[in-house]
Structure formats: structure tokens, C-alpha cells
Amino acid sequence: MTRVLATIYALLLYGFIFLPVAVLVLFSFQGTLFPIPPFNGPSLRWYAAVLGDARLTAGLGNSVLVALTTSGLATLLGFLSAWGFARFHLPASAFLRGLITLPLTVSYLIIGMGLLIFFNWIGLPKSLLAAGIGHVVINLPLCFAIIYSQLGEHQANIERAARDLGAGEAKVLLLVTAPMMWPALFAAFFLSMTFSWDEFVISFLLTRFETTLPVEIWNLLRAGLNPKTNAVGAMVFGVSIILAIVFELGAFRKRPQ
Amino acid sequence: MNRASSQRIGWASVTPALLWTLVFFVVPFIAMAVMSLHPKAGEGLSLAAYTQFFTSPSYWLALVNSLEVTAIVTVISVLLAYPFAWILAFIVPERWQRLALMLAVLPFWTSYVVRSYSWLLVLAEKGVVNSALVNLGLLSEPVQLANTRAGTVIGFVHFFVMLLTLTIFANLKQLSPNYRKAAVDLGASGLQSFIHVILPLTLPGIMVGAFLTFVLAIGDYITPQILGGNNELLMPQLIMMQIGRRGDFASASALSLILMAVVTVAYLACARWLKIERA
Question: Considering the entire predicted model, what is its pTM?
């Protein structure tokens, strides 16, 4: 009896969770002008429309560029600082670590607003660079937290051994610590990628002419319900699923003992 | 290696991240605070942006709406996610659990803007839900779901059910099965062992998830803007409106700081459950 109820409940929840995605993907293949029932299709005309839309393809390119560069920078800064705090006894360490993770507790809207006012003030115009700086601000604490939590005593001993054998600090970091920390670095980088790829409000506030894909999709929404939005949404979903699978295979694969 | 040079290397490695946080997070935050106190360029300090919030009912109402919607969303999401996580953790066979969990959070991977838009498709006047209900004869005419508070709540609940299922699932799996066995051995019924043993043990995890829901929902602009429309404004919508339509940065800054203060109060209220420790 419990089992039957549990199955029904689980199916209802799965239904709720999948309903919007299913509708999104189904009506991306709509043959007519509106993504509402009845379904007339399948047709690929809206996918062709997306690929033929210069703004959307430019947005896609910008999103990839911003996601790659900001995730790389956030992972690098996060790794260096996590290593510094884990290996050296620095004064006020707890306070400074708290400072680095502080942006995690503030909503993106407020971070974006602060940067908008700050950039106005120093005269940095709205641009992909401005949005990219914001993306590093939101991803750095995440990268730091992930990598810091994985830097244990075990690796410290190996680093000490490398130093005893004559390696300088830079060599230890590059040739010993970084390879050992590979799963954490990978997790930090990919998580940042997905956050940056999906980020809307900071890019919305800090870019103007050249912008990222979520902002271009937002601009499409002004036209109301439109199968083209479905098509581009379904494509973004596809890319994200691929990222998720790569992440799953890379970060959680059982390593040979 | 002597102590001084070791310190120097330590500082060299943490400085870039600290500087980044200082210049692009702390300083902008201060700039925002200063801005909120200078409503008119060239004039002195003034609390006008704040008094405006506390005296004008339409501004107040945005905060009240935000708190109401967030509270409703948090409660519904926890109530829906807990049994779901339970089923995934204890009823689904072990070998299928990973797949079942991955499927349960798959739409997480749609972009945030797209996810809200998808709900708009579902809830629109001629959308899937209304068409189905009218065709089945359950409704004589479509009900308005999009551009209402219900739309916002549904969109939020969808996202946070996934998030909470993940956190509660992790929590349930960490429990040793011995607790349940011990409770049953000592004569507790299934329900009793749940209420007196499992629930208290998973409460910290629920609180963390609920807090995350609160923080993320109250600061979100996209879901209320797309699904709730402009009939009823939430705080983030009001803030964006100050910047967009009115170019009033002082007011937008003041409202942002008020929103942050609210989140901080919520954090302090939950602080004892939210200890994040190094593994």
C-alpha cells in the first residue's frame, strides 16, 4: 500500500518537474506561429530561425567566451587563495576567508547594482568586460570554498616531500598540488561555467550592445510567446545537459584505487 | 625555508583573490551605500531614499509581498520535497537511486530565464494546462494563472522542490539506518520513529535548504517578472524599476540595502543551523 502511494506521489512530482521542459521542447518543433496547443509539427523552422538570427548567435558566442574566461580566472584565484590559506599560517585567516566567501550570501541583483554604480563612478562603460568582472565576483567564493574544503593534510605531506627533494614553491604548486587537486579544480571550473552560462541579472545590468545569451533570450520574451524562444531554450538546455554529463563523468567518476 | 619568506609566499597567493573581492565587491557595496544617502547629485547627505520606503505604502507593500511569496514558496517546497526525497532515499532500490535523483533535478539544467518562460507556456490563457482542463470539461473557461501571484509561486516551487530534494536526500542518506532500527526495536511504530527520530535528525538539513530557498527566492527578479507580471511588485522588481524606468540609483540602492538587511536578519535567525565547516 505504502509502495503504491509512494509510486503515485513520485510520478506526480516527476510530472510536475518535467512538465515545463517537455512543453518547451515539444513546442520548439511547432510548425505554426504560436507555441500553444494544438501541436502542428514536427518542424525545424524555428531552429533554422534561431541559427539565422545574428543577435542570438552572437549572444551564444559571447556567453561561451564569458563563461570560459571568468571560470578560468575564478578557478585560478580560488585555487591560489585556498592553497595560501590552507598551507600558511596567516594572521586573521578566518576573517579573510570569510571575506572571500562573503559574496555567496548576497543576491546577484545587489552585486550587479553595486558594480553598476561603481563602474559608473570610475567610468568603465557597460560591456562584456564589466559583466565578466561580475561573474568572477560570484564564482570566486564558490571556487575557493570547493578547493579549500579539499586541501587536506595528506597532500600537504606530499608537498613537503617535494620541497625536501628541492622543488621551489612555484614548482610544488604547479607540478604537485595542481595535479593532485585536479578533481576539485575541475568541479570548481565546471560549476562556475554553468553559473556563468546561466547568469542573467548581472549581465543584464552591466552590458549594453554586446551581451550574453540569457539577456538576448530575455529580449525575445518581449515579443510574447514565440516558438523561436522555445527553440533557443531547448538548445540551451541541450548544451547544459552535455555540460552536466561531462561534469558527472569528470568529477564523480570513481578513480581507480 | 624561514618563516618570513614562507609568510611572503602565503600572502602572495591569497592577495589576488582578496584584492578582487575588495575592489569589485566591498568597494561597490560601499559605493551603493554612499549612493543611497545622496538622492540628489551635488547635495549633501539625506535619508530621503529611506524615508521614502518607510512612508510610501506602495514601497512597503513590495517588501510585504516578497516576504509573503517567499514564505509560501519555502513552506510548499519543503512539504513537497521531503516525501519525494524520502521515497528516493528509502523506497527506490539502491541501484536506481542515482538515476532517479539525476532525473529529479534534470530541469535544473535549463537556463533560469528559459525555465520561467516554459512555465509561461504551460500557464498561459491558451497554454497547455488551460487547454487540457477546458477540453476535459473540467473548466468552462480558462483561469488566469500567468501574471498572478500563483504563477510566481508555481515557478519558484518548481525550482526549489528540485533544490530541496537534493539537500534533503543527501541528509537522509547520511543517517545511519541503525537509528530507525533502534527505534523500531524499542517498540516505535513507523510514524513514531519518523516523528521522534528521523525528523529531528534531518531538521538541520531542512533548515539549510529552507534558508537557501528564502535567500534565493527573495532576491530573484526573473521569476516574478516573467510569471507574476507587474500587477503585484516584489522587491527585486521594484528595485529594477527604480533603475530602469526612473534612473533613480539612490532609491534602488536604498531598497537593495533594505533587502540585504532582511536577508541578514533571516540568516541570524537560522545561524545555529547553518554552520559550514571544513571537511
Answer: 0.86
